[in-house]
UniProtKB/TrEMBL annotation:
CDD domains: OAT_like. It comes from the Eukaryota. Gene3D superfamilies: Aspartate Aminotransferase, domain 1 (3.90.1150.10), Type I PLP-dependent aspartate aminotransferase-like (Major domain) (3.40.640.10). Belongs to the class-III pyridoxal-phosphate-dependent aminotransferase family. Its cofactor is pyridoxal 5'-phosphate. This is alanine--glyoxylate transaminase. Keywords: Aminotransferase, Photorespiration, Pyridoxal phosphate, Transferase. Pfam families: Aminotran_3 (PF00202). The lineage of its organism: Eukaryota, Viridiplantae, Streptophyta, Embryophyta, Tracheophyta. It comes from Quillaja saponaria. One of its GO terms (biological process) is photorespiration. GO terms for molecular function: alanine-glyoxylate transaminase activity; pyridoxal phosphate binding. InterPro entries: Aminotrans_3, Aminotrans_3_PPA_site, PyrdxlP-dep_Trfase, PyrdxlP-dep_Trfase_major, PyrdxlP-dep_Trfase_small.
Amino acid sequence: AYTGPTADEILAKRKNYLSPSILHFYKTPLNLVDGKMQYLFDENGRRYLDGFGGIATVSCGHCHPEVVEAIVNQTKRLQHSTVLYLNHVIADFAEALASKLPGNLKVVFFTNSGTEANELAMLIAKLYTGNHDIISVRNSYHGNAAGTMGATAQSIWKFNVIQSGIHHAVNPDPYRGIFGSDGEKYAKDVQEIIDFGTSGSVAAFISEAIQGVGGIVEMAPGYLPAVYESIRKAGGLCIADEVQAGFGRTGNHFWGFEDQGVVPDIVTMAKGIGNGIPLGAVVTTPEIAEALTRRSYFNTFGGNPVCTAAGLAVLRVIEKAKLQENAFVVGSYLKERLTALQDKYELIGDVRGRGFMLGVELVTDRQLKKPAKAEILHVMDQMKEMGVLIGKGGFYGNVFRITPPLCFTKEDADFLVSAMDLSMSKM
Ligand code: PMP
């Protein structure tokens, strides 16, 4: 049993010694002490179904035994920087990761986070093309360092930093966007940015396949192929940010971008790659990777033995336990059940996403699409009381984000929907 400090004691310490900007979702913040697959446990041993572990990087499940074993064994053997010395784990993982990517995407750079991966991807694009301008999509999230904060396009995540050479394109959002589901119309905005906002040459376009922080927004069909064509004509590279959508989460494909039938020039990843271990990666072609040999690029812990041992185990588990297939089957079922709930409650304006990357947008008026900001907090709190955790996001903070560990079952999906149903019925 847990004998550590109480939630109140931890909260008091956080108030004194941690960032004052830390967010808490719940009226009474949860004190989580144990995790097992799709379940989390608080200090009283109370169990919660985790419908939001995906955001915190959990792909295989909390403390998945095979991943934990790989981490423990490698920690006992050696943990070091692999930049200067040889070690087989980093090479084996790079090879395994490259085998999961299409085309000639086979050179891997390891980092410690998604932010670092995107910073490096944009740097490589600038070096390779000799151009400076980057185009990203409004409502996106790409990180919180200088370059990635510029690429991120939501005021709530941006401080007053210099955004050199960044342009934000109209979001191809089928629910709130100005052109509905017509991807090609939105893509014209990217062409216009190139024509009117740059010299005609750009370094890169970067986008998520499904916006995660932005509230599970899928790109309108046909958007990426048209944008990629414009970008390549302007001499730029296409970067796919797979930090949230990658590693089988979207179910129908291993990578989110595959749904739009495109092959990027650079793919960035983090979160699910390590099942909770700090790890990120940039994968590109040998030709583009050459750009980084002009100077020394050094990252002390990027690709260290312990994290890459975890990554290798994650890939094995995803394959062995057929987790992508599970995300497809159970995710589709869960989406069907949530869509049925939309018929029952006016409050649900939209249900969207694929696999285990699902969004439920709450509105107080379906016509005006007025964000139901207070209602979402209430439902979320009620669901927590019933033992179900889900996330929230979107620019207005009114979208449920349902991104469970990939081992989530049909019974778990039923329980989650029942809890949401009951909370909404009591409003
Ligand atoms: N890209 C996307 C799509 C993300 O969702 C995030 C994190 N929310 C990042 C990049 C940044 O990753 P990290 O927090 O590991 O730096």
